[in-house]
Amino acid sequence: MGDPKFSRKTYDTPSHPWQGERIKAEVEVVRAFGLKNKTEVWKAETILRNLRKQSRDLQARLRSGDAQAKIEADALLAKCGRLGYLPVGSNLNDILALKDEDVLSRRLQTIVYEKGLASTIKQARQMITHGHIFMNGHRVTVPGYLVTIAEESSIEFNPASPFTDEMHPMRISADQAAANAAMRAKAEADQAAADAAAGKADAEEAGITAEDGVH
Fold this sequence. Notes:
By secondary structure, this protein is mostly helical. The chain has two domains: 20-99, no CATH class; 108-197, RNA-binding S4 domain (Structural Genomics Hypothetical 15.5 Kd Protein In mrcA-pckA Intergenic Region, Chain A, Roll), CATH 3.10.290.10. Helix content is 57%, strand content 3%. The protein contains ten helices and three strands; from the N terminus they run αααααααββαβαα. It has helices spanning 20-33, 39-63, 67-82, 92-96, 100-104, 108-114, 121-129, 149-152, 174-205, 210-214; strands spanning 133-135, 138-139, 156-157.
């Protein structure tokens, strides 16, 4: 029969349990993405950490002239594009710039909410676990499933679900779906502006000017 299989953890926990800033940031992420607990945050961090490690290793091998590294780099970038982490035409440096939110935004729960199938991010989780969501013609009950770009368009209500009735009292309206999309777009724009401002401040503190980037 062979040796029994033992499940292994698919994520790494923080190196220190009590770090105020990290705990506060994790709570905000859990609330924003409607996660069950911080374990799902740590899983996303582990995925991102592995991608970054692969990117750094491949860049080092490419500088040494390793031909196999070019094949592996193309495969890694294709994987990131297939999962929606990066747009077409990205490079290995773009992987290093990814954030936890880029991974969490590809979860089935997040996409169900963004497509307007649920009125709140927590309702999206409940609908998935209760079997109201179909993908590729099959029921998917895992909120943390990472959706590929090809699969995204196939996400819909389970044909046997009462949510298929547009008059269902818990069914989200088109106006509310548009409002949710606008709110999320604004939040992303504000975050991008804040990141740009922080980057500019760091550059000014380091004495780097716009002219330095030209050369």
